[in-house]
Amino acid sequence: xxxxxNVEGKMEQIRQRPLPKEKDLQKLIEPNLLELLDIHFLExxxxxxxxxxxxxxxxxxxxxxxxxxxKRNQNDNVINQAMSYRKWLTSxxxxxxxxxxxxxxxxxxxxxxxxxxPHPRIICIAEKFGRFDVxxxxxxxxxxxxxxxxxxxxxxxxFHLEPLTTLGERQNETAPVRNKDADQASGSVVYSxxxxxxxxxxxxxxxxxxxxxxxxxxxxxxIERPVQAYIGYRxxxxxxxxxxxxxxxxxxxxxxxxxxxxxxxKVADARGYTLNYETMLNTMADLxxxxxxxxxxxxxxx
Length: 302
Prior knowledge:
There is one protein chain. The radius of gyration is 20 Å and the shape is globular. The chain has 302 residues and is α+β, with helices and mostly antiparallel strands. A 6-stranded mixed beta sheet has the order 3-4-5-6-7-8. It has a 6-stranded antiparallel beta sheet with strand order 9-10-11-12-14-13. The chain has helices at 22-29, 33-37, 78-90, 94-104, 107-112, 131-140, 180-186, 193-197, 202-216, 287-301, and strands spanning 3-7, 10-14, 39-47, 53-60, 65-71, 121-126, 145-154, 158-167, 223-226, 231-234, 238-244, 249-253, 265-266, 277-281. Helix 9 (202-216) packs parallel to helix 10 (287-301). The chain is 31% helix and 29% strand. Helix 6 links the parallel strand 6 (121-126) and strand 7. It folds into 2 domains: 16-167, 3-Layer(aba) Sandwich (Trna Endonuclease, Chain: A, domain 1); 180-301, Aspartate Aminotransferase, domain 1 (Alpha-Beta Complex), CATH 3.90.1150.
């Protein structure tokens, strides 16, 4: 669907503005990775020992290494190229990637990130993808985390990213597909919804079950992903992170503008974190108001 602006009651279409070069797309996204995709920027045009150059190397807020490849127009080779870089990356030691994180991020942020080394992400960004691109990514995502994202640049410096599909992390999954042998070798633990849910009392578990049902009902694009510290819910980016404690549930949110009861507390900006509000659920009676805040956070990323 095209975009429109309201000019004194009359809708005028906002025209697309093609980006002249692939590099223009990269230069636009890299300085804004955290805002656009919840990813910390590490390196640009990173040279691999196999002779290639990764367009953008980053780490997401959940600690997963991220390889990003850009194409200004449709290109059938972008996924294969990214998979080749993934093979190179996973052949390295986790200490290598931790070193990159320590070198490129502020100390406080680097110290807060726990590297999810066995499960890197591949993000391919292009103006459009062909049917074969989508089918290829769908097959690959049975094992690996692959995401296809389209972009549009418009007049008036308007820019839009849209996940074409987030493969390998379907809605309502309690955990991504994992390589058990790799997990055992690395000593990593499978963090599931049940793992987090079991931390709460019987009453807290009931509150979480209702909360979870309402969050997933916000839209078919909502993805649930448990990690060590929380259960995350996202579309293109995380819009709520749920931490279950014995007697309460803590939510981290973003984009809160309507909070008449003042229940969403601002997290200190020093965390360098995009989900910069937190609120608590102590009883089932808190749920309706909490969902009012969650919906604002959801709308901030959609």
